[in-house]
Amino acid sequence: MSDPAVPWSEHAKALTDPSGASAKPEALSDLRVLDCSQGNFAALFCSSILAEFGAEVIRLEPPDGDVARLFSPRGILHRGTGLPYLVEGRNKRHITLNLGTAQGRDLFTRLARHMDVIIESAKPGEMDARGIGYRQLTEIHPRLIYVAFSTRGQFGPRASHPIPDYDITGQALSGVPYTTGEPGGEGPAESSVPTRQGNWIAWYAGGGWGAFAVMAASVWRWASGRGQFIDCAPPEGEMRLADYDVQWYHTSQRVRERVGALNICVFPYTLVKTKDSYSFIAGFSDINWKGLTNIIGHPDLGERYATTKDRIRNAKALHAELEKWAANFTSQEILEKVQDYMVHKRGPGTVATARLNRPVDTLQESHWWERGVFQRVEDPDYGELLLQAPPWKMSRTPPRIKWACRPVGADNEDVYLRYLGLGKERLRALEAEEVL
Amino acid sequence: MTESYFDWTSHAFDHTLIFDKPEALRGVRVLEMTTLVLGPTTADFLGEFGAEVIKVELSPGGDTMRYVTPEATFWRNASLGFFPENHSKYHIGIDLHTEAGKDLFKQLAARSDILVENCRAGTFDRWGIGYRQLSEINPKLIYVADSGFGQWGPFSQGRASYDAVAQTVSGMIGITGFPDRPPILCGIFIGDWFGGLMAATAALVALHHRNKTGEGQFIDLAQSESLIRSLDWTWVHHGLTGKDREAVGNQDEALVPAGLFACRDGFVALAAPRDEEFRGFCTAIGDPDLARDPRFATLPARQEPAHAEVLLQRISSWAATKAVVEIEALGERHGFAAARVANAEDRYKDEHLRARAAVWEYEDPLYGPLVEQGPAPKMSATPGRIRWSAKPVGWHNMEILVRLLGLSPARIQELEAQGVVGKWADRPGPKPPDDSRPQ
Fold first, then answer.
1. Sign of CA dihedral B412, B416, B421, B427
2. Between chains, do A359 and B299 touch, taking CB under 8 Å as contact?
3. Which of B188, B190, B354 to mutate to test binding with chain A, by most A CBs within 10 Å of its CB?
4. ipTM above 0.95 for this complex
């Protein structure tokens, strides 16, 4: 029985503080995952999630390493591995295997028998043609859950004409860049264009969906004893997150266009220039707009633009009004004004604001460090790395980072001995034959 | 294996057979008391794969998202913004400010596997229906608390959050868009949607643990922290170089070439970072020698900023003379990635997406023919599905109160009279279409 006198925030912290995670069990300690994807951060994020929750994840790379290790800004390598891979190598064992050889494919099949989940990102049909796809593996291992990542998927009219899977093409097909960015004519021509998210959001959405589907398949396997094939296309993963765009087209034949820092449903839900930076500011329902116009000392605007329709029709003019006010204050001062109004309940409405952070600003805020969002991991192979931790705080089975990454083939001896009983001599021979 | 691979997959994933297959989360009940997008998506994703979702709203106005619709224009009295995160749910209106309302909510929680809420931290605890209280009634309950900044920590107190707050505080906006231009918001509510995906995934992980142990648990999910997780190399880069990550427009610094390019008739995404893809691309533009130029021959050489700049200018001037479909066709033929910057109409009319039920057409009993984005991952044995669309506030009151809680019609009438249970307000957003006959 918990003590109701303890404030909720303290109680919640006691339940979920990730600094205590290592003393608690891991939810997926019973799952073994073989990730043989190549150059695909959707697949890598998928296996990272499973590894963070305690699955034993084995990364299978070709003998000279996954090309994903070379995907790095300005080509920066740290001890031979690129920065993105150092983020998504977490908690994974690393082995090599040459699937281009008959012996390699035979070893793959033998390893697969021991696995609960296989993750791949080969050209659709390629694993099947090699005799190591889902169709073949399910014959010998009906409990297997098999996830394949690709841009166009494993079926459908265009599936047999695949293209390599990348984040930028995933973003483009999702529809999100079409609606992101400054409208034409509002700025220089080269920047008033459909705009990508700076991070690999299609790959991260795709990988998130992959992990979601693996867990749904695991829950069903618990009941049925049967595995299945999961076809995960990152563009469709991000597309599912693309608001009401298709519904709007269906009902009104309207195509949603770019509006920069505005929103076509509501106002204000926008970014404004402040004395020292930019701030996001929202107060878009009628009552919250009233609150915001009180805060900026312009209650007349609250009355004149009382409905959402009034506000979005006059969004540009009202945005200019907000910027006129915001120019007098720093983003921090604006936050304090809003907090003062909210905490002391000086009037109706809920207003949200936040200073636009550079990543380095986020790193300076204590909130994230207290919550274990960032960690300086001491990795035995790669030294100290600043990593973003798993985003979930969980009371019984918290996720965690155990190590950051492993060099190419670093776990060959351990994994091949444990699963297939292959000793060092045998591994050396396989290496000489270019199987490992 | 005599059947060709793509014949086999077209049978294994045939969308016309979806309703003839079982659902992964059959028998899992989700109780949600959420608003806007983050919380509703968490429950919706579980519902797409077979969970029964009961959505509790404060009657008569209901979820705030019922008023968020493009150009503030309602369609058949509904908000279009409300549809994509509220499928196949049971809608019930309860006033949780009343003791009787809380009691109903507790009874529902006692019969549920997963609870999702997204109120500000501590609200449900104060109302006596938080994790501390509900886990006493139902120790197997998986309780998902979605929020902007988490349940504890300095920012968790008194700070409201939306999707765009998460975009702003996470650094996502800071690394997006063009240098020296005003910052822009992501075109979609990405902080909500991605957070919801992370929350739903954790709920399933907890379900897996519960299958083994019988234990429920508490999950604290902050949308800002989910976006921080998604910013790939931003943080490790700062740790190793001491440098901040800047916005660089439409080109990818890690993959060269990869970016968005203007064509004669639209925009195209193009990527050819692997050396063999780049060779194919050079052949496609009629300049195979370019792939032998030492500045461009290998990925590490192309990643050099000075080399990348020359190369991307070359690609830009080439792309400007081409049509989008030409570049797409060249990608297929020469083994690099090319795809249009698609808009809603492109997706709506796309036969491939229709055949994959990524664009899902169905007939709703209240709203008629609808087209929405379908479930994202395609599962061969337990495919996701949409049964019906979002419904007015309190649409399923009888269904839930009678079927699930076994209340008598007289008791329900009493609760309605006391305002504990309620239906839609008579205004666009919460109410049914004008031509419908209320139940």
1. positive
2. no
3. B188
4. yes
